């Protein structure tokens, strides 16, 4: 059950910085070893680029000038005149590379990578994963190799290097902070390829940071297009601003002379400042699947397939352990809402809730939600019961990996219990005397604490959903107390220390879960037939031969006033036949009037519906009461 998502500590960061630093130094300087001298008068085997440097001129007349000059000698063309002398003087300092140059370059790159690794470790939990750091360092190396090839074998502007093809997927799957750090590191490495080009460094940083600010961390591809368009505009503006700052004009090259041929367009820095982000954004859409696999992120399409109830593993769980499946469905609703409340991946949390108890499908009768008869734990020693409960985690991990479930989903299985203790069986063996001398650790799960915000949410939700079933007619305060107690307990045990959940996140999660549980446990108005069944059940539960509860003694009535003798009707008046005789009406007059209860606010039912005194035929009883009142008044 060992996690395949290992974490990289400081030692791992040091080793990665040394290894990839050596690769990058070799990538940047290999051409200096292969061609130790620049040929004069012959076609150049590679493109020579000299970044902007200060040139001081002192004339015979006593005048002096200082300006920044740069040079780009295209591959395949010979060097002649002053350009040949300028390139020769510059390259003699670099070819072959001196020990001082190599040491300075290696030290700078090592520090850059080591600080980048430290920044990644600070972005818990995603940036601390070993595979994530390997993918990021490998991506930086590929960008450097591709950029070096473009600079050596073409005369295109260095701003065509598609750095955003690396930084955009990183931002898309790992977040803006890691994306910004990757942008700065990549821009610094690319600027060393020229070698050090300040204009290139600033423009690439401006483009990449703008794109990361627009890209949504929820894998929205439309945000990638918006970030690309914004980076194009910022690239042009930043190039113009840096050029005005350094040389007091915007270099247009051949475009300024009206040459709009394809080679002139590709060589123009101003065009490349806008075209580089466009190329990088398009490439980012192509390399996004590779970046997703390198970082261990599951795509929305894969999550949708895993969430399909026709998936073989979900059908297995729902058919073999229906109680567990109902628990998983309830958890999915509660956990997804909590994840959305803090901006986490709600879709991933929902899928994780579906699969987190997958191992219970192996032996469902060991778990109370699936039991329909005897509890097998009643006949088992506590240690055997604990082993049976623990097995659902290990079997769930094995089953999920066997069927190719992504590790990001498998992680929910071995982290939702972390290292919690089975309190019931531990106390049971303590009460029995613990003759076997078992330790407390023998009753703790052998899982891992949550490493992401999503797995941390599910660990809280699993306990909340299970504990909420023990509440009887709870109000909001009862639910809030339960949720807070569970969160505080996990904080006290240190289970959430590495999950990346902040105090603000936990507050939002608690509020969301309270509302979700309250909504799930809301009451309903009883139907009349339900009330009828309850009254009948109460009558059947009453012991035979027992007298009904005596009615309260009525208050003494005042002495009746003497009544005149009844007047006989005259023959002319006729006689009216009473529908009820005096003997039949007497019991009705003595029948106590039912106690009427006030209707609850907003109720549309008559007040007498809930009256326990009324029998089955409530309308008939009401008619009888009205008839009795009429007879009584007529007798009077």
How would you describe this structure to a colleague?
By secondary structure, the protein is mainly alpha-helical. The protein has 4 domains: about 210 residues, Arp2/3 complex 21 kDa subunit ARPC3; about 60 residues, no CATH class; about 210 residues, Hypothetical protein af1432, CATH 1.10.3210.10; about 55 residues, no CATH class. About 60% of the residues lie in helices and about 5% in strands. The chain has 23 helices and 2 strands. Strands 1-2 form a two-stranded antiparallel sheet. Strand 1 and strand 2 form a beta hairpin. It is elongated, with a radius of gyration of 41 Å. The protein starts with 9 loop residues before the first helix and ends with a helix. The C terminus is likely disordered.
Summarize the structure.
The protein has 636 residues and is mainly alpha-helical. It has helices at residues 10-34, 81-91, 99-122, 130-153, 164-174, 176-191, 198-214, 221-247, 262-267, 269-295, 300-306, 312-320, 322-341, 346-355, 382-402, 407-415, 423-431, 453-468, 476-493, 503-520, 528-541, 582-590, 618-635, and strands at residues 48-58, 64-73. It has four domains: 10-27 and 108-295, Arp2/3 complex 21 kDa subunit ARPC3 (Orthogonal Bundle); 37-95, no CATH class; 304-372 and 379-520, Hypothetical protein af1432; 582-636, no CATH class.
